[in-house]
Amino acid sequence: MAGRFITIEGSEGVGKSTNLAFVCDFLQRRGIEVERTREPGGTPIAEAIREVVLADHAEALGPDTEVLLMFAARAVHLANRVRPALAAGRWVVCDRFTDATFAYQGAGRGVDPEWIQGLADHVHPDLWPDCTLLLDAPPAIGRDRAAKRGEPDRIEQEDNTFFERVRGAYLARADREPRRFRVIDATAPLEEVQQEIGGVLAALVERLG
Ligand code: Z5A
């Protein structure tokens, strides 16, 4: 049986990494084989692209280049990691996917969403997540949590209005695709967040498992 594809999205510091671990553990306890990964990244080439995207550079790295790098990383990640895992029946749990490109490069940087859609149609016409958990919180909360961790990367250095646009785009996408998205209130205490995620996952395993 083909595996399932779950993604976790949200702006910085909302708790994606923390809850990704919870999701993997929840599924594994139910006997499901899980592949945990992230974007950009997840394979050696895609991780190398991630370093280029997130590092500060002496020359400009413009929005179009950012989009193309995201899809270059995505193409190699899908080919060498995600698709083989799904074909082998594993559930792939991925920290970010194409929704992030629409939110960050589309809404955040002002790149034409139709161009992003065209690249998505080319790179993964047949593959969208079975379920996307959107961890939602005002940017100030996530940024405050993330700031405790260390120096911001190139994208994290953007101002609050950038992250407001990112958040708005995610919520708009969730509104348009209520069957795929589950919006989780990430301002709640972690135990409550995970209780809600657990409920979503239990229903998902029942429906798709
Ligand atoms: N990016 C893009 O622009 N376009 C794309 O197409 C893709 C990505 C795929 C890297 O992503 C960058 O790539 C990202 C978007 C861009 N740049 N930005 N911004 P990333 O996901 O690797 O990095 P990130 O967004 O900066 O995530 P993060 O900073 O690693 O945060 P997080 O994973 O969401 O949060 P966390 O590390 O799990 O939690 C942060 C802290 O909060 C930690 O101390 C937790 O213990 C704490 N926490 C978590 N939940 C709670 C609750 N509920 N209450 C209290 N404290 C909590």
Helix/strand layout:
Elements: E1 5-9, H1 16-29, E2 34-38, H2 44-54, H3 63-87, E3 91-95, H4 98-108, H5 113-123, E4 131-136, H6 139-147, H7 160-176, E5 181-185, H8 190-208
Parallel strand pairs: 1-3, 1-4, 2-3, 4-5
Helix pairs in contact: 1-8, 2-3, 3-5, 4-5, 4-7
The structure holds ligand Z5A.
- Percent helix range: 55-70%
CATH superfamily: P-loop containing nucleotide triphosphate hydrolases
Order of helices and strands: EHEHHEHHEHHEH
Q: Strand order within the widest sheet?
A: 2-3-1-4-5
Rg over CA atoms = 16 Å
Q: What is the averaged pLDDT score?
A: 96
Number of domains: 1
* Assigned CATH class: Alpha Beta
Number of strands: 5
Describe the protein in words:
With 209 residues, the chain is of the alpha/beta class. The protein has a single domain, classed as P-loop containing nucleotide triphosphate hydrolases (Rossmann fold), CATH 3.40.50. Helices cover 56% and strands 12% of the residues. Strands 2-3-1-4-5 form a 5-stranded parallel β-sheet, with helices on both faces. Helix 4 runs antiparallel to helix 5. It starts with a strand and ends with a helix. The relative contact order is 0.20. Bound molecules: ligand Z5A.
